[in-house]
Amino acid sequence: MSGFNYHKASDVADAAGKSSSDDALPLAGGMTILPSIKLGLSDPSDLVDLAGIGDLKGVSVDGDTVTIGAMTRHADVAGSADVQQAIPALAALAGGIGDAQVRNRGTLGGSIANNDPAADYPAACLGLGATIVTSNREIAADDFFKGLFETALDAGEIITAVKFPVPAKAAYEKFPNPASRYALVGVFVSDGPAGTRVAVTGAGVNGVFRQGDMEAALGGSFSADALEGISVSEGDMASDLHAASDYRAHLVGVIAKRAVAAAAG
Ligand SMILES: Cc1cc2nc3c(=O)[nH]c(=O)nc-3n(C[C@H](O)[C@H](O)[C@H](O)COP(=O)(O)OP(=O)(O)OC[C@H]3O[C@@H](n4cnc5c(N)ncnc54)[C@H](O)[C@@H]3O)c2cc1C
Fold it and tell me: How far is CA 192 from its chain centroid?
């Protein structure tokens, strides 16, 4: 660790300006960035703290859209009566992230900016057809997640909120790593204004992805039976000390059926 300059941003424009150099990074809850610095995996020159920007926190519902500020903590999404009412699957997903300490520091914006291949929120964004709002544009979730720890964000671009369309049906199921609770495989399914969607996290060799064969089958009949016989390519699955690719491929089918059964209710 070579040290860094700490800045407390006063508003979004200030944060964007101060984090626009290649070596500067925004700081949300610090749940990923601080351990990364300690382990020598990241060496930013400047950290720009977003914690003092009130506009970035909170949940609002406008018609069929739930908007969640980027600095909203997982515990606050899980406990929000508005999210529980409008998209219960999203509240449940937030409540299943990590442990109480992580949920009380980790944020929606930090999670999707980091785009860990085993994180839960990327599956919700892709699985609901969300829109990521940043300091200078809006990005469809389909265009946001670019691969392992990669997103469409430019240097100095701050996520301000995520807009989630309210689905008719949705559920998230995951097979968690028993230590971290990160998804070994997690599947978010929904049916609603953004179409029929199946988003898979934890499993893909390139991170979160949509499973087109399952979406087509569920478009015909939104039932777990519709997924019978759909196989997931082992070659597209990650393989590591936690699980081999063939095991993950099998799990995607099992967890997807559970999610559809839960969503179909
Ligand atoms: C022990 C442990 C267990 C965990 N388990 C899970 C789990 O089960 N499921 C899961 O999904 N996640 C899990 N996490 C991740 C956690 O939920 C956090 O979401 C994640 O670590 C990001 O933390 P943060 O929000 O504090 O962001 P930070 O660590 O502050 O930032 C992360 C990255 O995002 C960037 N960033 C942050 N905010 C913004 C913004 N608004 N705009 C642009 N860039 C931004 C930062 O520059 C940095 O690169 C776990 C983490 C830990 C430490």
Answer: 19
Residue 100 CA to ligand 1 center (angstroms) comes to: 14
**What residues does each domain of the chain span?**
1-49, 57-264
Q: Which two tokens stand for residue 167?
A: 């689905």
CATH topology of domain 1-49: 3.30.43
Ligand 1 pocket test, pick from 6, 22, 33, 77 with the greatest ligand atom count within 8 Å of Cβ, gives: 33
Give the three-state DSSP class for 103: helix
80-103 pLDDT, tens digit each: 999 999 999 999 999 999 999 999
Identify the residue whose C-alpha is closest to ligand 1 atom 31.
110
Strands (E), the chain: 5-8, 24-27, 46-49, 59-62, 65-69, 131-134, 138-140, 145-147, 150-151, 159-165, 169-176, 183-192, 195-201, 209-210
Overall pTM surpassing 0.85 (yes/no)? yes
Which residue's alpha carbon is nearest to atom 27 within ligand 1?
110
CATH of 57-264, one of 3.30.465.10, 1.10.405.10, 3.40.50.960, 3.30.470.30: 3.30.465.10
Q: Is residue 166 a contact partner of residue 131, using CB atoms and an 8 Å limit?
A: no
Q: Which atom of ligand 1 is nearest to the CA of 201?
A: 11
**Rounded distance from Cα 17 to ligand 1 centre (Å):** 21
Q: Ligand 1 centre from 78 Cα, in Å?
A: 16
Residue-wise pLDDT tens digits, 130-183: 999 999 999 999 999 999 999 999 999 999 999 999 999 999 999 999 999 999
CA 55 / ligand 1 centre spacing (Å): 19
Expressed in angstroms and rounded, the spacing between residue 189 Cα and the centre of ligand 1 is: 23
